[in-house]
Amino acid sequence: MLETTNHEIQIRLPFEMLTAILNQLDEMELRAVQRYVEECLESKKERQFEKNDEDWLDEEFLEYAMQEADNTVSLQEVRKALSKIPGSLAADVIASREER
């Protein structure tokens, strides 16, 4: 089955067929394929990061948090305060997932 995405063609084939094809290549051809695959993955990763970069970062909240930050509070003090909260965060996450 062929799928097109952003001028790319995706061809699905069984893994065994792919390995059989790759096994027929000489070392130089195999290195060229490896470089091409790595470049494609890196390019896709960069595009995905750029796309998601704006979506997840709430710059307005980040600015607010930086203004409210108190550098005099130590990590130990934060842990001590958090340890007083009853219940388990892990249990809450599991319960939340079960509700879905």
Describe the structure.
The chain has 100 residues and is mostly helical. The protein has one domain (2-71). The protein is 69% helix and 8% strand. It contains 5 helices and 2 strands; from the N terminus they run E-E-H-H-H-H-H. It has helices at residues 15-23, 27-56, 59-68, 75-83, 89-99, and strands at residues 2-5, 8-11. It has a two-stranded antiparallel ribbon. A hairpin with a 2-residue loop joins strand 1 (2-5) and strand 2. The longest helix has 30 residues, at 27-56. The protein is elongated, with a radius of gyration of 24 Å. 0% of the residues are buried. The mean pLDDT is 82.
Uncertain segments of ≥5 residues (pLDDT<50)? none
Helix-strand sequence: EEHHHHH
Assembly status: single chain
Q: Biggest sheet, open or closed, and with what strands and sense?
A: 2 strands, antiparallel
Main features:
5 helices, 2 strands, about 100 residues, single chain, two-stranded antiparallel ribbon, mainly alpha
In short:
This protein is mostly helical and 100 residues long. It is built from five helices and two strands; from the N terminus they run ββααααα. β1 (2-5) and β2 form a beta hairpin.
